# Entry
Amino acid sequence: MSEEQEEIKLKRITIKTETGSKWFDEPEKLLAWVQQQRQLYVFHAQQSQRYQMHQFFSTFDNSWNNLQKQITDGLKRFKNDPDNYNKRVDQFSKSFNSFLDSKKLFTEEAPFYQFIKRQASKSNEFGLAAIAVVFDVNVTPIDRKMYQGLQEADAYISGNEERVKDEADSLQMLKERWDEEQTSQRDTWVSEYQVKIDEATGQNLKVDGLISDWQDQTETQTADLETHKNQFKTKFDDELATAKTDLENLTKTYDDKLALHAAVRYWGIQQKSHNTKAKIFAITLGVTTVIVLSSIILFSIYGLDKPFKEVAVSRFITAAAITTFGIWIIKIVGNIFMSHLHLATDAQERRTMIHTYLALTRKGQGPKEEDRQLILQTLFRPSTTDMIKNDQGPTQLVDMINRLSTKQ
# Structure
């Protein structure tokens, strides 16, 4: 029991990287991660001396050496002393943040690391140039390769598309790591609460045993008490049956409303989504039409504006190909636009059907079984894209409303 308490008291090692936080439940895992990070810039070994950057990389090495020593001589050594261990965890986190803030190290979590890695795969000079620009380090001498590397690194730091993609990927990795952490915490909480539930179940069994003993004792009471008990039991059963009936009616009404409200929300989202896509493809259709017509007109002006005998057959074939392919693209985009427009209308109709059903529902009452089948058949019919003209649902909206209205 004491060992379990000591394990609970041990802090989880938390460090803040360039894009978020990382957690380690054991010093061994942290040490393996630190050793892995030291390999991020090993490509500099043969070239840093040439460009007078070896002192800069020595700073990185000293930082990682300091952190590694704190792990081996501190965290791993005092795992059996929770108070001392927790103090060293806080000290390690502060040291790591200090090194990171003062740019004395970087990790693979940095948004710019993928750029440095790609540049290093091209050549060592490009990798050194990327690090030099990121950390604002002077490089001498500057030869042709180093100059090209510095130019590419400067463009990246200035905010080109490559940097935007790297930062987006970094944020996505952070999100996935948070999702994994939350899932792990949720499983831990579920496990802890399950123990409490099991304890409550044991208490319920004890209570059931006491109730059983009490029932055995009541059988020895007088006939008068038995009579009163039977009368009370009959009255209690009647009231319980009435309460159960009311509860079942209430539960059924609540379930129906809850389910249909969820459906209303779902189809509202679908309607909004398809409306948005319809607008996008409407714009796409317009742009595509303009591009196709412009291409045909420009080709006609510059390629076919000659006497008929002087125009090569290949130009006629090219004109025909451009016209056919352009019309085909316009037709596809138009079909997609009409499909989303139709699906948005279909989602709106389903929401209207559900709202109508909810308006006609009353507590403990509602449509009969055949009417419920009508609603389910209408709501859960397959959605169509309006590309097949004869694809219709089993009933019409007006028919369903009229049929349900006459039942109330």
Observations:
- The longest strand covers residues 13-16.
- Residues 1-6, 388-398 have pLDDT under 50 and may be disordered.
- The CA atoms of residues 178 and 204 lie 38 Å apart.
- Residues 2-183 form one domain.
